[in-house]
Design goal:
Oligomer: single chain
Number of helices: 5
Strand content: 35-45%
Distance between the termini: 27 Å
Shape: globular
Number of strands: 22
Structural class: mainly beta
Largest sheet: 8 strands, antiparallel
Length: 316
């Protein structure tokens, strides 16, 4: 087998009660339904992307990660560590929180959920729910138990091209009218704190996870203020986030550009434009892994790419 330097992936769409049809304005492969999420780079059991072309075409990313470690810098982890997805919030998402790695291990999950958002379209309010005002665990529990949401919930300002880090333990909710790209650890563990009394398709309230939420919400609040990212024509490659588990770069290309790759392997999605990478055609919405066999890329055309790479763990 010719070992690939790029693994293009097929997206997986997820219907959600709060989803909509905004993906139709960006992508040409959109099925029917209330679509809330488009998982584009994932080896998670709830959405395991298939390799779209090349010698590994038709294989799941999880299988490739397990059986071809040479493509992933001999990463010793059992599970692919990253998950990238687009989110269309045509209604408010629930107020929720995610655990950290330590808590995740107590429930037999490989990863907690550090995540981050690149805002592609801001809501009319220009707000995101991020953080809380409780001073201690006792006050937090009292506010939750008595539904004092106006007193508890903190809101922060966002706009297009804002970057929003979301640490484990941060209370948060994406609000109606937001379109974003989410870069996160490969976890689907979410604890729902408040869902506005909303009913599901069966006419029943969606379950809440108050016990777990009270255990994992950070007190005092650990939220990070969103910040705007800018593009510098003289610097097509910019680091826009360095987290505990992964880092994120923006590659903004308007002319033929060569980039050296030195951080193992990269999960990449094209959020704007069209062009090519090492001769492979790439358009908006295409997503792929640049394997560790790829030590440089030549990017042509007009493309805006988001590239994430995990913090590498020591090899045993």
């Amino acid at each position: 087998m010719n070992k690939p330097t790029m693994l293009k992936l097929q997206p997986i769409y997820q219907e959600k009660i709060w989803g909509g049809r905004l993906f139709e304005t960006m992508f040409d492969d959109v099925p029917s339904g209330r679509l809330g999420e488009r998982w584009v780079i994932s080896a998670h059991g709830n959405g395991d992307c298939l390799i779209a072309e090349g010698p590994l075409q038709g294989q799941k990313l999880s299988w490739v990660f397990a059986h071809h470690k040479e493509l992933f810098a001999l990463d010793p982890r059992t599970d692919f560590p990253l998950l990238l997805k687009y989110i269309d919030a045509s209604d408010d998402l629930s107020v929720q929180v995610h655990p950290d790695d330590e808590y995740a291990h107590t429930i037999n999950q490989p990863y907690g959920k550090e995540e981050s958002w690149l805002i592609l379209k801001a809501p009319q309010s220009k707000l995101i729910q991020l953080g809380h005002h409780a001073h201690d665990k006792t006050e937090l529990a009292e506010m939750i138990d008595n539904g004092r949401w106006k007193d508890l919930l903190k809101y922060q300002t966002i706009d297009r091209d804002y970057f929003v880090p979301v640490r484990p333990g941060t209370l948060h909710a994406i609000l109606k009218g937001t379109l974003l790209l989410e870069i996160q650890q490969a976890s689907d563990t979410t604890y729902r704190v408040y869902d506005y009394g909303r009913l599901d398709q069966a006419g029943k309230p969606r379950p809440l996870h108050l016990k777990e939420s009270k255990e994992v919400i950070a007190v005092p609040d650990n939220s990070v203020e969103p910040y705007q990212i800018s593009t510098d024509p003289a610097n097509p490659r910019q680091v826009i986030f360095i987290g505990k588990h992964f880092s994120v770069e923006q590659w903004k290309i308007d002319q033929s550009t060569k980039l050296k790759l030195t951080d193992g392997y990269y999960a990449v999605t094209a959020i704007e434009g069209a062009g090519s990478i090492n001769g492979t055609p790439i358009k908006q919405g295409d997503s792929f892994v640049l394997t560790s066999l790829c030590d440089e890329v030549v990017i042509d055309g007009s493309l805006r790419l988001i590239a994430a790479y995990p913090k590498m763990e020591p090899k045993p």
